[in-house]
Amino acid sequence: MERVYIFDTTLRDGEQSPGVSLNVKEKLQIARQLVKLGVDVIEAGFPVASPGDFAAVAEIAKNVRGARICALARANFGDIDRAWEALREAEAPRIHTFIATSDIHLRHKLRMSREQVLEAAREAVRRARRYTDDVEFSAEDASRSDTDFLCQVLAVAIEAGATVLNIPDTVGYAVPEEFGELIRTIREKTPGIEKVTISVHCHNDLGLAVANTLAAIKNGARQAEVTINGIGERAGNAALEELVMGLYARRPLYGMITGIRTEEIYRTSKLVAALTGMTVQPNKAIVGKNAFAHESGIHQDGVLKERTTYEIIDPTVIGIPKSTLVLGKHSGRHAFKTRLAELGYSLSEEELNTAFARFKELCDRKKTITDDDLLALVEEEMGRVAPTYELHYLHISSGTTIVPTATVGLKVGESLVEEAACGNGPVDAIYKAIDKITGIKCTLESYGIDAVTGGKDAVGSVTVRVKNEKGKTFLGRGLSTDVLEASARAYIDALNKMAVDVNGPRIEP
Ligand SMILES: CC(=O)SCCNC(=O)CCNC(=O)[C@H](O)C(C)(C)COP(=O)(O)OP(=O)(O)OC[C@H]1O[C@@H](n2cnc3c(N)ncnc32)[C@H](O)[C@@H]1OP(=O)(O)O
Ligand SMILES: CC(C)C(=O)C(=O)O
Ligand SMILES: [Mg+2]
After folding, report:
1. Which of 51, 75, 210, 493 is the most exposed place for a label (fewest CB within 10 A)?
2. Is 229 annotated as contributing to ligand binding?
3. What is the DSSP letter of 293?
4. Please, are residues 167 and 182 in contact by the beta-carbon 8 Å criterion?
């Protein structure tokens, strides 16, 4: 199989993302991880841009082994000399020089004629070749350039000694068929092209960076310029992980391999997100939090029966331990039961049904159900005796200027019994109303509340100890996103245990 070389420009184009600035230590850390990932080329920076960028390239060139180290330079001697100064200690250095070839750029930005651009390209490549025999030339804005002129510039660069010719879609304007066609035309029309590697560098302004890169590869490109998580100027660059996994998942279609150790992808993505502060959107392909998460019951059931029903890539291949079944309001019993089993709980059919019903109720109130939520919920369910009293409703009126009042409705057997009471606080009022209903004489020994999970929508866990007249203590636990409801449930839980102790278990109808 043929090889596509992976040129990572996270540290150069990736760092051009608005708001991103990496220091030397951070760049070094990312470069080391890129080597572990197996990229072929690391574009470490643009040395003329700042002393910091120069230092980062120099440090990486000096210390990082296992990949080619590349530095960017405009098509002028100052930039190229500075790039070489930074690169000189690299084991395998590459100078990457570029100049725009589109009429828009020539007329408005460079204010140069085509002849001047041809000359600048020739001189820049020659200058770079004085330092190293690995010289990449980029025709900036190639996709909006006149194709004949583009091929002319590329031919000049080859003649001057460029070894890699990069075709950027600088402004993300191309679409796949057209970009693939451009690569084919360049191969047909550029003298000497067979001596060099064709590279592509696609931006994501239309969300087509990876699609364009794949189209280019289909048409003969053998180096792909990419960034981790697709970060980069404006809408970013082609994402390394998407391109590599596209080639991997559709290998028979492309017949290409890369040197990427895919199991390092997820770790690298995490590192880059942490150091750049550019968080990865949850639905981002390959590395997003949801990329291997299944929430809906039908999908979860399918994945549990056979992973490939809903997964085109095994997540372990990219370094994610396994796919996750996210329990939420769309989940079904299969996933619920499986997760509980993983947590060590084996529930009877009846317990499962009740726990599942409560789980669905919780899902309507809470966005994400965590394992802690599940544990708390099931523990409550399993520790439960057939209840004498069940909470039917709870109404509380409380505030800084009114007497806290609670109205509680409890199901006692088949009947609904309601009472209201005032208290020192809302919990006191609830407990007094419950006492009126049950008529049980008892004292509240202790009351504790914990957030079982983090966040504003956390489940509150209330634990109470209640002593009966004979001095026996009963523990009650209640859970809810509403702490007052959790308080009521905990108290009722303790009273139910107390009732069983006195009367024996209630026989369910
Ligand atoms: C598509 C890309 O991603 S290209 C890389 C973009 N990255 C960056 O620009 C980040 C780093 N850049 C910088 O730090 C600065 O822009 C520098 C240090 C490179 C240059 O700074 P300044 O000298 O202040 O110039 P400034 O950025 O304002 O303008 C760019 C100049 O370079 C010229 N230029 C732009 N591209 C090229 C090129 N490839 N070859 C030669 N000259 C070029 C422009 O025509 C302009 O020249 P002018 O001053 O004669 O009008
Ligand atoms: C410097 C070049 C390769 C570039 O980043 C672009 O054209 O997008
Ligand atoms: Mg770019």
Report:
1. 51
2. no
3. E
4. yes
**Can you tell me the distance from the alpha carbon of 78 to that of 331, in angstroms, rounded to the nearest whole number?**
61
Contact predicate 222/198, CB 8 Å: yes
Which is it for the CA torsion 352, 358, 363, 369, positive or negative?
Answer: negative
Supply 263's token pair. Answer: 């199991």
CB 139 within 8 A of CB 180: no
pLDDT digits 0-9 by tens, 43-80:
999 999 999 999 999 999 999 999 999 999 999 999 99
Q: What spacing in Å lies between the alpha carbon of 252 and ligand 3's midpoint? A: 30
Q: Which atom of ligand 1 is nearest to the CA of 50?
A: 14
Between CA 488 and CA 475 the distance in angstroms is 13
Domain locations in the chain as residue ranges: 2-276, 293-382, 403-503
Measured from the Cα of 141, ligand 2's closest atom is 7
CATH (residue range 403-503):
3.30.160.270
Q: Which two tokens stand for residue 235?
A: 């809408």
- 381-418 pLDDT per residue, tens: 766 667 899 999 999 999 989 999 999 999 998 899 99
* Site residues for ligand 1, CB cut-off 6 Å: 13, 16, 46, 48-49, 74-76, 98-99, 109-110, 140, 170, 233
Beta bridge partners of 225: 7, 201
Measure 201 CA to ligand 3 centroid, in angstroms. Answer: 7
Q: Is the pLDDT of residue 508 over 50?
A: no
Closest CA to 291 of 263, 260, 322: 322
Q: Is 493 annotated as a binding residue?
A: no
In the CATH hierarchy, which fold is given to the domain comprising 2-276?
Answer: TIM Barrel (3.20.20)
Nearest partner of 67 among 40, 90, 87, judged by Cα = 40
- Annotated ligand binding at 212? The verdict is no
Q: Cβ contacts of residue 432 below 8 Å, gap of 6+?
A: 406, 421, 422, 423
25-34, 271-280, 460-469: which range is least confident on average? 460-469
User: DSSP letters along 389-423, please?
Assistant: EEEEEEEEE--SSS--EEEEEEEETTEEEEEEEE-
User: Both tokens of residue 321?
Assistant: 């331990």
Let me know if 184 is exposed, middle or buried by CB neighbors in 10 A (0-12, 13-18, 19+): middle
pLDDT of res. 97: 99
Retrieve residue 455's tokens: 């966040």
The protein residues having their C-beta less than 5 angstroms from ligand 3 (an ion) are 13
Q: Is the ipTM of this complex over 0.95?
A: yes
